[in-house]
Amino acid sequence: xxxxxxxxxxxxxxxxxxxxxxxxxxxxxxxxxxxxxxxxxxxxxxxxxxxxxxxxxxxxxxxxxxxxxxxxxxxxxxxxxxxxxxxxxxxxxxxxxxxxxxxxxxxxxxxxxxxxxxxxxxxxxxxxxxxxxxxxxxxxxxxxxxxxxxxxxxxxxxxxxxxxxxxxxxxxxxxxxxxxxxxxxxxxxxxxxxxxxxxxxxxxxxxxxxxxxxxxxxxxxxxxxxxxxxxxxxxxxxxxxxxxxxxxxxxxxxxxxxxxxxxxxxxxxxxxxxxxxxxxxxxxxxxxxxxxxxxxxxxxxxxxxxxxxxxxxxxxxxxxxxxxxxxxxxxxxxxxxxxxxxxxxxxxxxxxxxxxxxxxxxxxxxxxxxxxxxxxxxxxxxxxxxxxxxxxxxxxxxxxxxxxxxxxxxxxxxxxxxxxxxxxxxxxxxxxx
Amino acid sequence: xxxxxxxxxxxxxxxxxxxxxxxxxxxxxxxxxxxxxxxxxxxxxxxxxxxxxxxxxxxxxxxxxxxxxxxxxxxxxxxxxxxxxxxxxxxxxxxxxxxxxxxxxxxxxxxxxxxxxxxxxxxxxxxxxxxxxxxxxxxxxxxxxxxxxxxxxxxxxxxxxxxxxxxxxxxxxxxxxxxxxxxxxxxxxxxxxxxxxxxxxxxxxxxxxxxxxxxxxxxxxxxxxxxxxxxxxxxxxxxxxxxxxxxxxxxxxxxxxxxxxxxxxxxxxxxxxxxxxxxxxxxxxxxxxxxxxxxxxxxxxxxxxxxxxxxxxxxxxxxxxxxxxxxxxxxxxxxxxxxxxxxxxxxxxxxxxxxxxxxxxxxxxxxxxxxxxxxxxxxxxxxxxxxxxxxxxxxxxxxxxxxxxxxxxxxxxxxxxxxxxxxxxxxxxxxxx
Lengths: 433, 433
Known about the structure:
Two copies of one chain form a homodimer.
Chain A: H1 20-39, E1 43-44, E2 50-52, H2 53-57, E3 70-72, H3 75-83, E4 93-97, H4 102-112, E5 120-129, E6 141-150, H5 156-171, E7 178-183, H6 184-193, H7 201-208, H8 211-225, H9 230-245, H10 263-280, E8 285-288, E9 302-307, E10 314-320, H11 324-329, E11 335-340, H12 342-351, E12 362-367, H13 374-384, E13 389-394, H14 399-408, E14 413-416, E15 427-428
Parallel strand pairs in A: 1-5, 7-8, 12-13, 12-14
Antiparallel strand pairs in A: 2-4, 3-4, 5-6, 6-11, 7-9, 9-10, 10-11, 14-15
């Protein structure tokens, strides 16, 4: 390394190293999720971490578009960009790190459609990157875990996604969680019914989305200060008030609907509520929630979120986005996805002190690095390895200290190599007194 | 998406989408490798994909330093860099994508040493990025699979790494491969013995490294045209000639050594040859190869490579690098690693038509999306899923065509939902005649 350069051993700001114990927990959780999804016929795919910058900037990523890590052009292209002294920052990059798994999935489907089954059911588990100001619990590289189905219009897809995601959460020992269900078209009907002008729908939805945090009076204030007419606001509020108190299961959820809700939308909601209530069989719950909004602009139909018991934060979210493939290929394809908040799941598991099941009993084989015949040491280790996890370690002078270190390092037992012996004695590690 | 923007559905140049079948093969191979390494006491860790750019540029990455994907600064920092009209390209980036897993591992070890066991034995499987001109089989994002041991000086580490990597390859059905072994200090002794001037060692090693490809006469020519003295070249050549024809196993490898080879280096080589011959037990072979060089400048001791049977390309490579941690922390730590060429392994497996073992029998449950009660469909699917992988699909008008598509999509059987029935008949899918 060049002299005078001070290297930092810290990972980049907002990013993390994963030590063996955390990696084991993440690997175990990943395996549980994948195994569950596979039973529903989903299969894992992968896309590159980088996408052409135009694809990322051109998407409907909302706030995420401001958070893209952009990759500098290389070679002649960069020379050319820099030689132009009026260079704009937009012209310096040609690639960017993906900020979610949905934009890449739609590109993947457009590129590979001819070689994919129909319906296409994908599992994606991978890193995404966002240049957020690092806050507690928010990282600049984090894992997302999505399932998506392309090619089926029927709400059976919503049912399957909700059921599969719920079963996946149960495989990670989550219990008694609640699925909240709504439909973008219900929100639109509500806005129309209350007299919101066409261009102001999104702004109204953004305020409704805050209901959990700021309550009814807070939403009223926000709506008014955003310039919505008092009459409109009062109509909206009376609806929201009714919605938060009325019955929300398959029987009776209609009381929470705006009167102009389209019949086929209501029927599909009823079907999903009914089917999930049946397959959940009391192990988790589902309710209709007309105040559920979800941030992304690309949703076209049902939307859903799962909250863990006793937590306001959602641990999974998704919905239908039937128009996104069409924007890339010119031909719409029905699409629906559900994403588990992998990092939140892992922190909850860690808080609960959940540990990944071990891979077997670990044994240290101690030997004298100066004197022992190493080929014999290796043969003995090979024999032990048939039944145990075996790690070779040179004997240290202070045996007791070394044994304590082994025990703290998760070893269950040790053995000391003795030349010429056919079998080795395995001794349990016990805390020195 | 903005009007007029043409989005490309292709992944970025030199990068790939992984379809379900290839992903399944990669996941299976990964699981085999990890399970094997775990038996040797290695544990998986992860580092971020991005590193501070100074750490990447400051390393001993050789040619790879020219191939870094650099990430543009953001916000005020970028404004500041661009406002300066004499901006250098080096000042535009603050982060870069890792080009290997060794530089991040050394940083990881330096940062987390206090919380890691000693010895520390790491498995890393992850993507790395290099902006190479895309050629056949060379990708700009590819997977590396490394094991490394920190904290033990004894050559038992080399033995364990070679044995673990060989067992991992056998778990992927590689047979009869050959491990080639050398030591950087043998190369240095050879150069000294032949009278190569101190500053010209690396150039000589680079030419020797080409022996496989251009033969003895080619190496002679290269050495001469690189300005080495005829006398030096002839001495080197006579040694190389002897080395390529002499016996190379534990018994007799000394004939291939330069006369000034240090005794402890020779003893360690003998120990490794002897131990691996024993544990290999005829299933694979090991030989001393004094012409083995390996590209990276950071190696300080033994180096090794594995070639698949009938292939000139290596499928794994590694060596000892005892000085790299010290360059970051000021205190040297013994370190040794072995890396499997994951992409090469996967292409060889794909060429051999190896497929990942299936996850179970896949069954399609067909239903009428307009008329069937979807809650009953879901309950039936749930029952079937106790024993099968079940995917729901709306019935299509042309049943025969749909069944053929299911069979081509890897389904083993199907069932047609009938309302009110308690059990469903499962029918095997058979090719229509």
